Please model this.
Amino acid sequence: MFFTVSKLYQMFLSPAPLLLLLAFAGAILTATRAARFGRALAIGSTLALGVIALSPIPPLVRRQASSDPDGDIVHPRTARPGQLLSGATIQVRLLDRISSVDTEKGDLFHGTVAYDVLQDGQMLIPAGSKVEGKVISVSTGKFAGHGSVRLRPESITLPSGTRLDFHAEATGTRLSKTRVGAEGAINPGPRTTRDSVEYGAVVGTGAATGAVFGGPAGALAGGLIGAGLVTTHLMTDHPQTTLEPGVIVLFTLTDSIQVFSADSN
Model:
């Protein structure tokens, strides 16, 4: 008898039956005070709470310990013999002049590989290999903007005559004041220093001329006129991108290329 009463006591004091009793009491109280629709909604809600309370809680699955402390780290892919992975950089020395002023979209450009391209100490692409590509975008700049060009290299021809197609994007330049922006756009370098010199020279000349003819008031007026002329000039004179022959463009591979197969070595 003591065992049975104790079991009943523990059962009714456990969380699931208590929640069910509370839900049932709430349903009775709600049903007596609510309208037909509200009564049905209240009864359904409390019964749902009771079912949830009695539902077994699934046990937590403990993650098995791993002997590899770096098991969650994504490791970089290893290149196969004779393969250049995406992210490798090829430096190309231009043979043609490219300018946002007179170069047109679709024009071809030519260059040579400036330095040997190595993979794990092995030379895959020797310096002097020929590079061909296409100008895919030219902009002369809009209001207070600047000119820019985008280049897409398409192939490398090795000294052996083997032609390799590849995909890459400009990520930098050398021997040039240009800079590379988003999506490989090559833009002119900063013109802050040149603009400051032009601004100071024109404003100073205007102020000096005004002082000769009108004293201090004339100097002020001349300076303001000079400043206005410089501002108009800067707003309408868009700096342009020019890449002279000999400039090196850094192209970073966006896809892997297989220079030679493992069994050809």
Q: What stands out?
A: The chain has four helices and 15 strands. The radius of gyration is 38 Å.
